[in-house]
Amino acid sequence: MSKLQERATANKWSSMSGKKPPSMGDIFRTTFLIVVSLIILAPVLWFVLSSFKDVTDLSSRPPKILPTHWAFENYTEAFKMYNYKRYFTNSVIVTSIATVLTLTINSMAAYAFAKYNFRGRDGLFVLTLAMIMIPLQVILIPIYLVVANLGLVNTYWGMIIPAAATPTGVFILRQYMLTIPDELIEAARIDGAGEFRIFARIVLPLCRPALAVVGIFSILWRWNDFLWPLLIAQKEELYTLPVALALLNGQLVVPYNIVLAMSVMSIIPVLFMFVFMQRQIVQGIAQTGIK
Amino acid sequence: MPYLFVAPNMFIFITFIIWPAIRGFQISFFDSIDGRTFTPVGAGNYRTIFGDPTVASVAKNTATYVIFYVLISTILAIALALVVNEQKFAKGFFRAIIFLPVMLSPVVVGLIWNDVLDRKVGPLNSLLEALGGGSPGWLVEPKLGMIAVIFVGVWVHIGFYSIILLAGLQGIDRSLLEAASMDGATRSQIVRTIILPLLKPTTLVIIILSTIHGFQSFDFIYTLTGGGPLGATTLIVQYIYDRAFQSPIQYGLGSAAGVILFMIIFAFTALNFLVGKKREAI
Amino acid sequence: MKIQTLRSKLAIGLSLVLTAGLVATGLPTAQADTSGLKPTAAQLTAWKGKEITYYFYNDSQAELDTTKAQIADFEKLTGAKVKLDVIPYTSLDTQLQARLAAGNAPDVARLNNPGLYIKDSLDLEQYFSRKYAAEFIKGSTLQVTDPTTKKLIGVPYDLSMNGPIINVDQFKKAGVAVPTSWNWAELIAAAKKVRIANGTEYAFAMDKSGHRFSTVMSQFGAFMVDKNQRNVLPTSKFRAEKSLKMITDLYKADLAPRDLWIGTGTKYASPVAIFIGQQVPVFFSGNFNLATLVRDAKFNFQVVPNPKELNGGGWPGGKFLTAFKASKTPDLAAYFLHYLADSAQMEQMDKNAFWLPTRNDVVTKGVAYPSRQLDMSIYLADTAKTPAAAFGIQSVPTLTGNIYNKLRDLMTEIMAGKITAKQAIQTQTEFIDAQLATLRK
């Protein structure tokens, strides 16, 4: 094997050049990325800094970059005035249970679409895809009526169940499952394994990257979900973080510095997850082979 | 057996999405100001929508937003993916940063940019002033408002699309590129003649996704501009939302607009899909 | 005629409030007679452990805290439980309608727009005598009286009054005396002078609301709807145009926060943060912002009387309590409503949240506000001066939201230079006609 072919098979195609001093291309690329990163990071940083400013600083013109004094009381006030611990716990409960539920039923449905041939399969799948295109606001009141008739208003399940059947999740998982060789499943069948066993023991573990992607997206969506929990959670003990934020924003008089502090606090768990999981996210998407 | 697998998901779909969607479709033929008493109006709501100049402007705004959003997102995402893919230094870091805004809640995004784009107190204009560029009213001039909203929309989602394209890039067969390079093709020739065509399926996915996202944009726009200035950034989902949350309350009208929106998205997606299939991209 | 009595009643009440207020400082707050509030043994047995829901929103933290305290007392008194649902103001009506539609009605609600729920509300005269309505300021129960049955279906919980609040420190620095009476020309001149002397961003700011602007129109003698549900804007259109042009000119010149008004679309926006940030010396708002200012303003501020053009006085608003027919324990719900709106509770809430009372006995006795006594007395004085015609629009409770919002949107267009004040008034007139026509369908 030639050296070139060796290298080609050994690692993914990244760049043709070997160990040379940074070329014009490299410099251009890095500059471009730095500019983009600044455009992305700067506003977020500004926001976080603003959350430490007091009311006078916030309305000063021209705006100060750093607060004159670090207004940690924004955070303590937010904590005191608003039941942050409760809202946080609710967000965690709803997000985690919803994600587990989503992963379970989405993967089951995706498996059926990918590996079985049954009547109405294609029709159902197209219907599933079509569901992606309905914005929640359009069906808001009818969904609410249905949920109320089922007695699920003001319950955790009311917040969790309706959005669990994510069509995008089914789509992504099906795409991935299509790449699993049928022979594996056939072989297991011949060995006498039950259908559900095959699904749980063989197919699912192979789907880890796709499951990771759907799981992470589900966590993101549920954590930031605001309109639905706002309708369903009709007592304060059920409020999730975004609902609490919306409450602040919706009051006739908005204590803006508190809103800032609460917003930053609501981003932190997400940022946390982001820092630790971003590699999985990216690899997961890469490996689901969205082509 | 497959029915058992599909059942739980389908059950939730039907109960919580399909059935309400049908109800929504039904409601579009009625008038209701309180969600309980419905007066039938036949096609009245649809007639209102097609005859109302406010709706015409909402449609124009939506079309403008979606077209620019899809175009800019797609081109920028491809560029970013290509650059990141070739990047040697701190590749993972840049990739992570670009993905960051995707994780933010739309309400927070609106809050951030409301602050940054403020004409008087915002850091952007302070910077522009320092550079001698004046203080444009990003959120108070209708045309600038639309630009701001498109920019923020792209800012949020570009990471998502770039990652998908990156995945697509990494699936391209290296030997093709090595061969071309050995034949003396320049980088830009390789990009143009090999990479981009092979990236078509992924690009199509991006176009479809960004079109759907574009049409559904609401949360961050509403927090950012409330649909202003003077309705310049009121898109169709806000129109629907206002029919339910602002006086005068008109649930029937909102539902009718929702039906129309769904049909538009469906048509676009189907069109994209078919065109893609024709060009054998799928 | 009911409305005339309101003004004279308040005029009497005013002098008593002032006297009582001045005397009451330093004295312990008297306990109101609560003997009528002791539930019977039968009621206690029936209500033990029952739960009702109170659908509530608040303008200030003080209201929320006081409500929670009163709920705790109520629970002790009756052995029942009250679930407090705090709702964002912006989705108050939508959420309530969604709940009613789904058969999930609350038991008691604090509302802005009780007219929308007349057919859902309990007839209070079943539980309390015919004379219950008479306990409240005459004319204030108009919006909670069923127009067909003439029965009382709710109670006015608080009266709000619009008017200017000024930054006293800034006025002093500019050498402008705190006014005890003025007209609009004087107000604007003073505002401009104070702005220049202090280098503030703006001279004047008003809540982004058609309801707030109606105050100015009223002072110029222009009204939109009268008590017989008639469109009276055409007869006062020149005065309306004049007042409209005056205010929007300030915004167009950026002497008032134009960006805040234009850049927020259909959302409500209050410049209270600008006032607290000391970037505007004159803030045209109302007593509902007082509690927040008390908490957050780090400067001396004061309520000043409304400017007088043709008329003096301000513009009324208020919130109401209703109980719902769909309640599973309607008698408990009615009792809770009665409790919240009773003398002791109302007095306590008024004190803490700087509300204006709606009960005759509280008005007569006077509310000993812990601070801002002068401010509240000015609000009361303005209430007495408010022309009867200002209450006219309350005859169309289901339309007020639409009418105010349209006015607000037209103002935005004027500020952006899209239309003139004259065109705006023309459009508003046509809009009111169309709205009134829906009542006759």
Report what the structure shows:
The complex is a heterotrimer of chains A (291), B (282) and C (441). The model of chain A is unreliable at 8-13 (pLDDT under 50). In chain A, α5 (84-115) crosses α9, α9 runs antiparallel to α12 (208-224) and α14 runs antiparallel to α15. Helix content of chain A is 71%, strand content 0%. Chain A starts with a helix and ends with a helix. Chain A is globular, with a radius of gyration of 24 Å. Chain A has 291 residues and is mostly helical. Chain A has two domains: 3-72, no CATH class; 76-287, MetI-like (MetI-like fold, Orthogonal Bundle). Chain B is built from 13 helices and two strands, in the order αββαααααααααααα. Chain B has helices at 2-27, 44-51, 53-86, 91-99, 106-116, 123-130, 142-170, 174-182, 187-198, 200-216, 219-225, 236-245, 251-278, and strands at residues 30-31, 39-40. In chain B, strands 1-2 form a two-stranded antiparallel ribbon. Chain B is globular and about 75 Å long. Chain C is an alpha/beta fold and 441 residues long. Chain C has two domains: 2-160 and 317-388, Periplasmic binding protein-like II (D-Maltodextrin-Binding Protein, domain 2); 162-315 and 390-439, Periplasmic binding protein-like II (D-Maltodextrin-Binding Protein, domain 2), CATH 3.40.190. In chain C, strands 1, 2, 3, 4, 5, 6, 7 and 8 form an eight-stranded mixed β-sheet that branches. In chain C, α3 (61-78) links the parallel β1 and β2. Residues 1-35 of chain C have low confidence and may be disordered. The chains are: A mainly alpha (291), B mainly alpha (282), C alpha/beta (441). At the A-B interface, α1, α2, α5, α6 and α7 of A face α1, α3, α4, α5 and α6 of B.
Question: How many distinct helices of chain B?
Answer: 13
Tell me the span between the first and last alpha carbons of chain C. Answer: 28 Å
Q: What is the average per-residue confidence, as pLDDT of chain B, rounded to a whole number?
A: 84
Q: What is the beta-strand fraction of chain C?
A: 5-15%
- Helix content class of chain C: 40-55%
* Unreliable stretches of chain B: none
User: What is the largest interface, and how many residues per chain?
Assistant: A-B, 102 and 97 residues
**Biggest beta sheet summary of chain C:** 8 strands, mixed
- Largest sheet entry of chain B: 2 strands, antiparallel
CATH class of chain B: Mainly Alpha
For the record, what is the CATH homologous superfamily label of the largest domain in chain C? Periplasmic binding protein-like II
Structural class of chain C: alpha/beta
The CATH architecture category of chain B equals: Orthogonal Bundle
Q: H/E element string of chain C?
A: HHEHEHEEHHEHHHHEHEEHHHHHH
Strand order of the largest sheet of chain B: 1-2
Order of helices and strands of chain B: HEEHHHHHHHHHHHH
Distance between the termini of chain B: 29 Å
